[in-house]
Amino acid sequence: MWRDLAGIGRHPSSGGYRRFAWTAADTDCRAWFEEQARARGLAYEVDRNGNQWAWLGDPAAGDAVVTGSHLDSVPDGGAFDGPLGVVSAFAAVDELRARGADPNKPLAVVNFGDEEGARFGLACVGSRLTAGQLDVERARELRDADGVSLPQAMERAGRDPEAIGPDPERLARVGAFVELHVEQGRALDLGGHPVGAASAIWPHGRWRFDFRGEANHAGTTRLEDRRDPMLTYATTVLAARKKARLAGALATFGKVAVEPGGVNAIASLVRGWLDSRAADEQTLAEVVTAIEQTARERGQRDGVTVDVVRESFTPVVEFAHELRDTVAALAGRGRPVPVLPTGAGHDAGILSARVPTAMLFVRNPTGVSHAPAEHAAEDDCAAGVTALADVLEGLACR
Ligand SMILES: [Zn+2]
C-alpha cells in the first residue's frame, strides 16, 4: 500500500506531499482508496460530502465500528499524517481476517476529505459537513487562492456539490470511530512507547490578520513618511511567540501574503494567518486577545490599520472516557498504552461531538509533522496495525 501511495502528489524538489482537496493528486489518492476497498471485497461508497467508505458487513445493521483518517496533506507534508491511519485501517481488516475474527457488527474504513484545509483554508471540511458543524452556505463560499470555489472544485473532480450537507442518518449507524494517527510530537518517543491513545485535543483556531498601510517607493519615501504594514506584522509575530510562551500555549504565523509584493515597494497590505492552540479555551482566548492588542497598538504607531477575522475555531475535545479507556486497554492487550493530549486537530475531534470517538497514536521519532521529516519506523507501523486490529476485534467481534 505504501509503495502505491508513495509517488502520489510528491513534489520532486521538496520531497514533501501536495495532496490538496479535489486536485489531481487527491483524485489519485481517492482512486487508490477505491482500489483497496474493491480488492478486499468491501462495499465501497462515497457520501454526499465526498468522504469515502469501505464496508465489511451491512451498514444498515447499525452500531458500526469505523476506523480511518484522511489522505490529503498540508503543503509539502509528510508521508504519514493521514495515510498512516487509512493504510493501517485496511491492514487491520486484513489482520482480522487472517485471525479468523468474526465481526458481529459492521466494520468500515473511511477516508475523510479535505482534513488539512490546505486549499480552502478550513480544516476538516468533510467531517464537519457530515457532522453538521459547517454551515452549507459557508462551505459554498469557500475559495482557494485562485478564486476557485469549493463547489466548483468538487464538480471538476466529478462530485455533485449540490448534495453537500449534514448526514445524520449515516452517523447514526456509527457506534464508534477510532482514528489511528502518527504522533505529531515526541511524547511516545521520549517515553519509549510505540503506540499510545489520545485523551483530548487542545482547542485551536485560525485568525486572519490584515495589516493595511500605504504602498510607496522604497527608494524615495522618507522613513518617517511611511505607513509600512510589514513593521506591524513583524512586531505581531514576535508578540505571538512571547504571549504563547508566557501562557504555556502555542501561536504560529505560518502563512503570509504581501501586496503588492515588490522588492522595491513598501507593502500596502500584509495578510498573516495566526494558528493558536492551548490546553483550555480561556487561555487560548487570552493569548489571541493579547496578540491582537499588541498588533493594534503597534499599528497606531505605524499608521497601519489592523483587522482580525477568526476563520475557524475548534473547541476543546475530551474523548469519550469509557471508549478511550477500552481502546487504551485493548491496544496494550491488558496493560494500557499511555494516554496523551494533542495540540493537533483531527476528524476524530469533529466526530466526537456526534459519536463515541477515540484515537491511537504511533511513535514519530523525529517529532516532526506537516513536513517531509515526519517519520514512523516500520516496526512501529506494524505495532500500530496490531493494536488497531486488537481494538477492532475487541469492539466489533464479541
Ligand atoms: Zn492528520
Could you explain the architecture of this structure?
This protein is an alpha/beta fold and 398 residues long. It has helices at residues 2-6, 24-39, 83-99, 125-130, 136-141, 150-156, 168-172, 187-191, 229-247, 281-302, 321-331, 347-351, 378-396; strands at residues 43-46, 52-56, 64-69, 107-111, 174-182, 195-201, 204-212, 216-217, 250-259, 265-266, 269-277, 305-314, 317-318, 339-342, 357-362. The strands form three sheets. Strands 1, 2, 3, 4, 5, 6, 13, 14 and 15 form a nine-stranded mixed beta sheet that branches. Strand 3 (64-69), helix 3 and strand 4 form a beta-alpha-beta unit. Helix 11 (321-331) crosses helix 13. The radius of gyration is 22 Å and the shape is globular. Bound molecules: zinc ion. The site of zinc ion has 6 residues, from loops. Residues 70, 81-82, 115, 181, 346 line the site of zinc ion.
List low-confidence stretches: none
State the share of residues found in helices, binned by percent.
Answer: 25-40%
Main sheet, how many strands, which sense, barrel? 9 strands, mixed
**SSE sequence, one letter per element:** HHEEEHEHHHHEHEEEHEEEHEEHEHEH
| Percent strand | 15-25%
Measure the end-to-end span.
Answer: 29 Å
Bound molecules: zinc ion
Annotation field: number of helices: 13
Structural class: alpha/beta
Summed over residues and divided by their number, the pLDDT gives a mean of 96
Total count of strands: 15
The backbone outline, from C-alpha atoms, is globular
Instruction: State Rg.
Output: 22 Å
